[in-house]
Amino acid sequence: MAEQKQLDIFDFAINAERQGIRFYNRVADRFDDRDLKELFTKLAKEEAEHVKTFQRIKEKAEKKGELHPFVFDDKDIDEYIRSIMLEGLFPSDEETDRQIEGIDSPATACAMAMQAEKNAILLYSELAGVAKDNEHRKVLEKLVKEEKSHMVMLRQLRANFDPKYAAMAFGRFF
Predict the structure, then answer these.
(1) Dihedral angle sign, alpha carbons of residues 66, 68, 69, 71
(2) Residue/partner pairs of 154-157 with CB below 8 Å, 24 or more apart
(3) Which CATH number is 28's domain given?
(4) Secondary structure class of 8 (helix, strand, coil)
(5) Could you report the per-residue pLDDT of 24-66, keeping only the tens digit for each?
């Protein structure tokens, strides 16, 4: 089996959060609904804060001389987590463009965003569990909480646009 390179969570997370910013901004521009625009714009801003968080930690670690401060070896990462990291949380820029063109409703946009947020929650939770540095673990745990709040917001918004989902998720009927 070919040797697999180490996965640097900082570079991955910065890129993934940037893709999230782009996705949320593009979706916000796609619809006229004010609540939808506000939520997706807010999520884009929060993803931008996540980028800054990862950049600050990476810069701090590099100042200490840790070139790859938050790297996980193969033994620390199972195949599921590896697949999320290699595939990304959000689609690539080109794939995002293609998928956004195919979004036919706000509910579909919310469903796509919810899947990315679920992957972020799972990934950051797993990585927090294997993080050797206590500060890194705390940062990941904080990000998990924020990603969970994104899920709650998206879930509520999706229910506003998808009666079947609202009935299933909340027992609401319109």
Answers:
(1) negative
(2) 154/39, 154/43, 154/110, 154/113, 154/114, 154/117, 155/110, 155/114, 157/35, 157/36, 157/39, 157/106, 157/110
(3) 1.20.1260.10
(4) strand
(5) 999 999 888 888 899 999 999 999 999 998 888 878 777 877 6
Please give the C-alpha separations between residue 102 and each of 34, 40, 97, 105, 123, in angstroms, as whole numbers: 21, 17, 9, 9, 27
Displacement of CA 130 from its chain's centroid (Å): 19
Give the count of domains, the chain: 1
Which residues form the domain of 84? 7-169
Its sign, for the CA torsion 142, 15, 120, 45, is positive
**pLDDT, mean over the chain:** 80
Q: Is residue 43 part of a domain?
A: yes
